[in-house]
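Materials and Methods. Structural model of G-protein coupled receptors family 1 profile domain-containing protein. The 277-residue sequence of G-protein coupled receptors family 1 profile domain-containing protein from Trichoplax adhaerens was retrieved and submitted for structure prediction as follows.
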Amino acid sequence: SIPSAIIFIFGITGNLAIIITMIRYHKTKSKERFFCLIGNLAGYDIFILLFSMTLKMTNYFITWPFGSFLCHIYNGFQSYFMAGSAITMTFMALEHYRVVIKEVNAYSKSSGKIIITVVIALTASICACPSIIYSKYVSHSESSVKCFIQFFQDLNQDKIVWQTYRNCRYVIFYLFPLIVVVTTYFQMLLTLNRYSRTSLAEYHLTKVKEQKNIMKMILYTNVTFVICWTPYFMYGFIVYFNHTVDDGIQLHRLIRVACELIAYINSAIHPFIYAKY
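The predicted structure was written out as tokens:
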């Protein structure tokens, strides 16, 4: 579709530009852990658009054409890259919080970058495991092929496990990052305001201003995250608790596709926020 193509082009181009910039200036800002996390987030956004969005839109409009192996990988990719993106944003807030609270005029350099990257990747992998293990590929004929996640054959058991799984995804991918960012943001704001009142040195005041600009970037990144992903999670809860919602009905199908496209817009907007700050 045209909307998904626009999101794909802007998202891939913008995030690639961010990564290229990080590589090009690897001897300066990219040595800082915070800017390394920005590069990681850009990478996750690229993979979300490349694999999650494109395969999902294909699966919506035609029968699954990619076979059994890619069915398992596809479901795992969605959870892995969503978790990686959300956890990276959480680490961005925590890293900047650490810097502001510890010392307003210094960033730790390259130490810990690899460890943080590995921790994020491993955590995202754990989140993706259920989606990979319980993926089902069912082929009745060439025109009737389905790729989906099913925990149990018994519908009641499957429903209970799906509710638990959905709630865990909601907490990990949405609620937890939001709570961390809001909490650290207000703590950083109080700390920087205190620096502004007590420090008369122009150097420190300049650093405070720089830190506030980065705080704005974190805030806008997460506001965009909330705006884009709220419809997706809300629709999921509505579908679960309202059994009259049928994905086979064209209107409901269009609403679902629209909610997911709005969620993917988040990955395309990030580079523009980075560029401003």
